[in-house]
Amino acid sequence: MDAAHAFAHDVTRVKDLAGFSDLLAELCGRLGCRWFALSHHVDFLAAPARGVRIHNYPEEWALWFDQHRLGLSDPIHRASRRGLAGFFWHDYARFTQRRASDEIILTEARRHGIGPGLTVPAHLPGEAHGSVSFAWTPGGVPDPQSLWFARMIGGLAFEAARRLVHPEIAATGPRLTERQRECLIWTACGKSAWETATIMGLRYDTVKEHLRNARARYDVTGCTPLTIRALFAGDICFGDLAGL
Asked: In the β-sheet with 130-135, what is the strand arrangement from edge to edge?
């Protein structure tokens, strides 16, 4: 707990990616491991600016990983999409179906000096899935408590990296007003503009205006695209729709 508190204190004072990488390297020392990787799960060869990726893996491994377009298909990445708590890599098959290529990928990782490891997922609306991972060299034995420690600092680490790489994130707020949200939620649940106006006690033209302005804020032309974009951005959630 003391180490997690210390990291939470230090990470707020990091000014650049070099300092942040130094902090992650210090965490590796506490965990007794060698490698760290914090990344969105995207094809960085095709879209290098799309997500965040900070790691100290061997460059040869990173190149092999990218050349084989493993951002979405890597077995550890696949497993991390099915939960939030984090897991040791040897348990990955509990969360995703094994594929014939998985052992090839894990064997190649070992060939590059990457052995057992653990991963803590990082999922945010509107972004690709992501994760924070720590790995040992082949033959290393992770302490069972290391997963608890990684769970405590994983979210802090990912959020700090996002803000360092994309400082504009801090200024991003909700795109929809409360009235626009309410109108969208009712129409996304299948209510017409007339029905929505009756339910909300508004004029029909007012509801239409709220929906028109909401579409303009997302630069879309229909209710379905608006609903999808608002869900991904976090302006509405699935609970809003299921609760009506």
From this structure: 53-55, 35-40, 130-135, 117-122, 87-88
